[in-house]
Design goal:
Layout lengths: L1 E5 L10 H14 L3 E6 L12 E5 L5 H15 L4 E4 L13 E5 L17 H18 L2 E4 L2 H11 L6 E3 L21 E5 L9 H14 L3 E6 L3 H13 L6 E5 L3 H9 L3 E4 L8 H8 L4 E4 L4 H5 L4 E3 L4 H13 L1 H15 L4 H14 L1
Parallel strand pairs: 1-2, 1-4, 2-3, 4-5, 5-6, 6-7, 8-9, 8-11, 9-10, 11-12, 12-13
Helix pairs in contact: 1-12, 5-10, 8-11
Length: about 350
């Protein structure tokens, strides 16, 4: 079987959907699936391996890529099926059956989601039109959680029988990285979920301020990069007198991230909405207790292994962090439960479920 994949979300730093694409394709290739990855630019980290081929369709225009270059390339490469891996991207005239993975529809759930875009109205209009078209043109839709499936049925009117839920696998734990010097010897709370409007980082910083007053030796560390939003967050920390205690690492590679997670006292991830929640599983896999939100897919992914809070309640977020800081027995129980929850999510299992779906189609 020869499957074509949209590789555009895996062109830059491999985070979120990029890691999903990489992990899924590598596992499918091990099962003998011929995987053809279609990029719009040369990737920074090319996904390589037996049965994996990269095709670069040079284009900065997403519509040209999806509606003209991609259909021609699918024919040329003689793929049996096309898998749009990142919420959108199914050509209107796709020459082969198409599967669409929906990780979330957060832009429709979070107010002012497009506010950081240079053209907010046009960005929202483009997103909605591409999403609706892809939902219509795909023969099967995969969601990464039952929460996302319910949202598609409720908000987009997609027939439930057209949707299959296939959970993503847990992030691989890649050892061997060094802890950044600025974190060495520090006791810190970690947010490793990226910088985005939905990540609720302003309330996290407010909650941390409550903790900092009681435990001044505890730092807050935020990974990832987003130049526009980072400036606003730095302004907030300066205003609250926390600039020396809230540390922004920028983007870190997988090895370094593993070291940062493993050395943290806890992961605190009070995001407003998620389709799945890799940062939770990263905490579990590295033996670290996790505080997260009681919304969207997060209870589904975390089970009973995390402390879940209302992400809009600063007091609840601070209270959960303090429980972990002060209750060693609770911390130990959470670490044990977290390891069990982490082991429930396997990329090998995910790949087998996708292969069954491909064969069925």
């Amino acid at each position: 079987m020869r499957i074509g994949f949209d590789g555009r979300y895996a062109e830059g730093n491999l985070v979120g959907v990029g890691k999903y694409i990489q992990s899924l394709i590598i596992e499918l290739s091990k099962l003998g699936v011929e995987c053809v990855i279609f990029y719009s630019n040369k990737p920074e980290v090319e996904i390589k391996g037996k049965n994996i081929k990269s095709v670069i369709l040079h284009s900065e225009n997403r519509y040209l890529f999806e509606q003209a270059l991609l259909p021609a390339a699918l024919k040329k490469e003689k793929v049996d099926l096309y898998h749009a891996t990142g919420n959108v991207g199914v050509p209107v005239f796709c020459p082969v059956p198409a599967v669409l993975t929906i990780h979330d529809i957060i832009p429709l759930e979070i107010k002012d989601y497009f506010s950081y875009s240079p053209a907010p109205f046009l960005s929202k209009l483009s997103y909605i039109s591409r999403l609706k078209s892809s939902l219509l043109k795909s023969v099967r839709i995969v969601t990464v959680s039952n929460f996302v499936k319910r949202e598609l049925v409720k908000k987009m009117g997609v027939p439930s029988e057209k949707i299959t839920t296939i959970y993503s696998g847990a992030p691989n734990i890649i050892k061997g990285g060094k802890l950044p010097k600025e974190l060495t010897g520090k006791k810190y709370i970690l947010n490793n979920g990226g910088i985005d409007i939905r990540k609720n980082l302003d309330r996290l910083i407010e909650a941390y301020q409550v903790i900092h007053k009681k435990y001044p030796d505890v730092y807050l560390v935020i990974t990832s990069e987003n130049s526009r939003m980072k400036k606003d967050l730095e302004t907030l920390t300066n205003k609250r007198g926390l600039s020396k205690f809230v540390l922004f690492t920028g983007y870190v590679d997988d090895k370094s991230l593993t070291s940062i997670v493993r050395s943290s006292f806890m992961v605190c991830y009070p995001t407003l909405s998620e389709g799945f929640g890799f940062p939770i599983l990263e905490g579990f896999g590295n033996g670290v207790p996790v505080v997260s939100s009681n919304t969207s897919s997060l209870p589904e992914v975390s089970g009973s292994a995390a402390l879940l809070v209302n992400p809009k309640n600063v007091g609840e977020i601070a209270g959960a962090m303090e429980k972990i800081l002060t209750d060693k027995k609770l911390r130990d129980r959470m670490v044990l439960k977290g390891k069990g929850q982490y082991n429930m999510f396997s990329w090998a299992k995910t790949a087998h479920e996708y292969l069954d779906l491909y064969n069925h189609i």
